Amino acid sequence: MKDWMEKLGDLVREGSREELEKVPELQSLLEILGQNLIGAGRLGEATNLVKTANHQGLRLSGSVYRQLAQAQVRSDDATSAEATILELLKRDAEDVEAQRFLYRLFRDSGRMTRAHAALNRLVELDPSGGTATFAHRERGKLDEMSGQPVRIAILSSYVLDPLVPFLDVECRRAGLTPAFYVAPFNQYTQEILNPSSGLYSFGPEIVFVALDLEDLFPAVRGVPPVDELAKGRDEIRGTITTLVRELSSRSKSLIVVHELTFAGSSPHGVLDNRRSDGLSRWTEDLNRDLAEDLGSQAHTFLLPLRQVLSRTAGERGQSRKLYYMARMRHGDAALRQIAHYSMRYLKPLKGLTRKCVVVDLDGTLWGGVVGEVGPEGIQLGPTAPGVEFVDFQEALLNLTKRGILLAVCSKNNPEDVMPVLREHKHMVLREEHLAALRINWRNKAENLADIAEELNIGLDSLVFLDDNPVERELVRQMLPGVLTVELPKDASQYRSTLENLTDFELLALTKEDEQRASQYQANRRRQALERSSASLDAYLHSLEIRAEIARAERHHVTRLVQMLNKTNQFNTTTRRYQAPEIERFVASPDHGVYVLEVADRFGEHGLVGSAIVRRERERWCIDNLLLSCRVMGLSVETVLLKRIYDAARLCDVPQLVGEFIPTAKNGPTADFYQRHGFQLSGDGDGAQSWTLDLRVDRIEDPAWVAVKVSGE
Amino acid sequence: MRTVEEIVSSVFGVERDTVDDNSSPASVEGWDSMGHVNLVAALEQAFNVSIDIDDVMEMGDVQKIKKILLAYGVRS
To answer: How many domains does chain B have?
Structure first.
C-alpha cells in the first residue's frame, strides 16, 4: 500500500475530525483506501474505516461495504459480514444488493424465518420480474414457513408462467404459502377434459383461466364481417361455458376466468364505436355474456382484466414484443397488477378478509389538528385543501356498504372531537357509522386491542390507518397481526391507497353484510341495556330473543359458505367448505344442514348460526357447528344443538357425536360439547369426539329464547 | 451507468464477481428462456434502447451482449 494510504489510515484510526476535514477529496480517497485494505486482507482495519466513516457522517459507497462483507465471508467470518451489511442497511435501507447479501447470509446459516423475511423485503425494494423470479426460486431452497398453504393452478392459452413469481410475492406478503401448477402452454382444453390430467392430480383450490382473445378468435386481427363476429361471440361463449362446467364437475376449486381483451387498435379507427361490426362494442358484449354466465354460479368469477391492465397503459406496446419473442402477453408491470388483483379472490377464499378499519382523525380524516385550530380551522370541505379528505371519507363509507366496520382511534380530547363528528358540515363519517370510538391519550396498540375485543373480532381482522409514522411503527411492532397501512405523506393519495387494498373482498354479498353497520349500532344499545340490567338472566330475558331454525335450502348457500370461511371463534372444526360441497350436503339425504336466524328487540341479526350433520345409521356426527361472534353469549348455540338432538331422537338414533378440532382461535368453543352433557369419547390427531347418549341425556332450549322451528 | 455484468447479477440474483464475459445460460442459475426475457427487459430499460428480436436471440453470453449493444451505441 502507498504511503498516503497508511497516513490516511492513521488519521482515521485517531479519528481526528479536524485533521480529516482538511484532506481534499476525502470521500474518494477513503473509498480507495477501503478497497486496498480489503485487497490486502486487512479486514479489521477496513471494518474500522467503515465504522469511522459512518460515525463522521461520510458516505462511503455501498460497494465498499459489500466488498468487505464478501471478504469477511471468504475468511469464514459470517458474523462480521452480517454486521457490515447491517451497518450499510442502517445507512441506506433501500440498498437492494445489501438486502440480497443479507438474505444469503440468513439462508447459508439456516435461519429460515429471517431468510423468508429478507426475501419479502427484497421484492419490496426491487419489484422487478427478475427479482420476483429470484425470490420464487430461492423459496424452493428454504424450508417452508408455517404459513397457511394454498394451491393455485393457472391455465392459459399463452405463456403465463412469469405470473407465478409475482403471485408468490403477493401470497407471502399475505402470510400464505402457495403451491403452483401451471398447465403446459396452450393445453387448457386437454387439462380440463382429461380427468387424469396434471391439473386434477394437483388438486387446486383456485384455478385461474387466462385465455387470449386472439388465440380464441384469430380473425379479430383482421376485419371480420358482422356475421362472423356474431358467430365468433357465440362460439367463444360456448367454449368458455363448457370448459368451466367441465372443470366444476371435476374439481371443487374456485374458478376465476380472465376477461377477454383486445390489445390491438381497431381497423375502423375512430368509427369503431359507431359501427355494428366495431370491435370495442363486440368485446364489451362478449365480456358481458361471460359475466352473466359466470355470475350465475357461486364459485365462478370473471376477473376484470381490462380494468386491471388500464393501470399499466404504458406497457401495451411492449407486450406485443413479448408475444413475438416468448408467446407471453404481459410485461412485468401488468403481471404485477394481475397478481395483486388475484389476491382479491385468494384472500376471501382463505378466510383472510379483514372486517374493520380503524382510522386516526387529525391528519387522516381531516387536515390539521382540531385541538389547535378548532372545528372550523380543520381542512375539510369542497375545495383543496380539504376536498381530498372528503373524498377519502367517502371511500371509507363505501366500505361499510359491504359490511366492513369503521372505528376511530385518536389521541385527542373528546370535547374537541365530538363537535366535528356531530356538527361539521363537511364530515361524511358520523358517529352512527362508527362501530367503536377510542378518543383518549392511551397508546394506540392498547386501544386497538380494546376495539377488537369490543367488536368481538380478532386483531387480524383490523386494518389501521394513521398518518403518523411513529404510531404506525408502534402498532406494527406491538400488534403484528393488525394490517398497518403505509399511508403516503400526500393526503391526495389516501383514497387510492385504501382502494388498492385487497383485504376487503367478499366472494358473495349477503343481506347480513349490507346491514352490518346498523347491527353494530343496535349492539351499542344492547350494551347500554346490559349495563342497566340487574342480573345477566334479567338482561337476557329483556332482550326478547327470537330464534328461528330450519333445514338449509339452496338460497342459504351463499351465506353459509361465507360463515364457514369467516368464522374463527365459535367454530367447532373450522372446516372451510366451498359452495359445491355445501350444495351437495343440502341435497343429500345423508346430511342435515341447519341454519339459525336470530332477532331481538333491537333488530335482526340475520342468519348467524349453522350446523352440518352427517347422518349414519347408528349415530349422527356433528361435522361442524358455528355461530357468528355477534350472537355469542346468548346461548342460541344450544338451540341449534337442541334441534339436531330432537331430529336424531325422532329417527331413533342412539348416539350423537360432536367433533371438535382445537385451533388458535376457537377457544370459546372448547367446552361447548362438555357443557351440554357430552362425554369425551376420542382424542387424537388434533381432533376430539364427544358423545351424547340419546336414550339417557337431554338438552333443553334456554328459557329466554323463543324458538320457532320451520320445515321438516 | 450500470454495466452488463451488474445487470446480469441483479436480474438473476447472483454475486457480481461471479459474472464475467463468459457467463451464459449454462453457467448462471435462472438464466433460462423466461429469465432471458427478464434480462432483455432490464437491458432495454437500463440503456434506453429497444433491441431487435434477432439480436435478442443472439445474446448467448455476456460478451455477445456487449458486442450487440455496441451496435445500439451502448458502451458498457
So the answer is: 1
Instruction: Check residue A279 and give its pLDDT.
Output: 92
Indicate the pLDDT class of residue A661, thresholds 50, 70 and 90. Answer: very high
Which residues are CB-neighbours of A366 under 8 A, at least 6 positions away? A378, A379, A380, A386, A389, A420
B33 touches chain A (CB under 8 A): yes
Say whether B34 and A126 touch across the interface (CB within 8 A): no
Tell me how far apart the alpha carbons of residues A392 and A397 are, in angstroms, rounded to a whole number: 9
Rounding to the nearest 10 degrees, give the CA dihedral for residues A43, A48, A51, A57: -120
Predicted confidence at residue A317, as pLDDT, reads: 52
Mutation target to probe the A interface, by most A beta carbons within 10 A, among B8, B18, B34, B55 is B34
Residue B63: inside a domain: yes
B11/A130 touch (CB, cutoff 8 Å), yes or no: yes
Residues of the domain holding B49? 4-71
Q: Which residues of A touch B33 (CB under 8 A)?
A: 326
Whole-number Å distance between alpha carbons of A83 and A90: 10
CB contacts of A130 in chain B (<8 Å) are 10-13, 35, 38-39, 42
Any domain includes B44: yes
Confidence of residue A20 (pLDDT cuts 50, 70, 90): confident
Q: What are the cell numbers at A12?
A: 482515521
Please report where in the chains the cell 381482522 appears, as a residue: A461
Specify if B76 maps to a domain: no
Question: CATH number for the domain including B44?
Answer: 1.10.1200.10
Q: How far is CA A131 from CA A113, A313, B7, in A?
A: 19, 23, 11
- Spell A466-493 as b/e; 16+ CB within 10 A means b: bbeeebbebbbeebeebbbbebeeebee
Query: Cβ of A395: how many Cβ atoms within 10 Å?
Result: 15
Count the neighbouring beta carbons within 10 Å of the beta carbon of residue A341. 21
Distances (CA, A) of A443 to A305, A409, A411, A434, A483: 43, 10, 8, 20, 17
Cα angle A179, A183, A185 (rounded to 5 degrees) comes to 140
Give ipTM to 2 decimals.
Answer: 0.84
- CB-CB under 8 Å, B40 with A133: no
Chosen for mutation from B10, B50, B57 (greatest number of chain A CBs closer than 10 Å) is B10
Provide the pairing of β-strand A206-210 with A148-156.
parallel
* Closest listed residue to residue A502, CA positions, set A393, A295, A350: A350
Cβ-defined contact of B37 to A134 (cutoff 8 Å): no
Q: Tell me the percentage of chain A whose pLDDT exceeds 90.
A: 64
Looking at the DSSP assignment, which residues form a beta bridge with residue A251?
A: none
Tell me what the mean pLDDT of segment A443-465 comes to: 94
Residues of A in contact with B53 (CB under 8 A): 321, 324-325
B49 touches chain A (CB under 8 A): no
Taken in order of first residue, the domains within chain A and their CATH numbers are 3-134 (1.25.40.10), 147-349 (3.40.50.1110), 356-499 (3.40.50.1000), 511-710 (3.40.630.30)
Measured distance CA(A177)–CA(A116) in Å, rounded: 11
Across the interface, whether the CB atoms of B37 and A322 are under 8 A apart is answered: yes
Give the least confident one: A14-23, A141-150, A177-186, A420-429.
Answer: A14-23
Q: Is residue B45 part of a domain?
A: yes
Residue scoring higher pLDDT (B11 or A530) = B11
C-alpha distances in Å from residue A85, one per residue of A42, A51, A81, A131? 18, 12, 6, 19
A181: β partners? A153
Looking at the complex, does the CB of residue B37 fall below 8 Å from at least one CB of chain A? yes
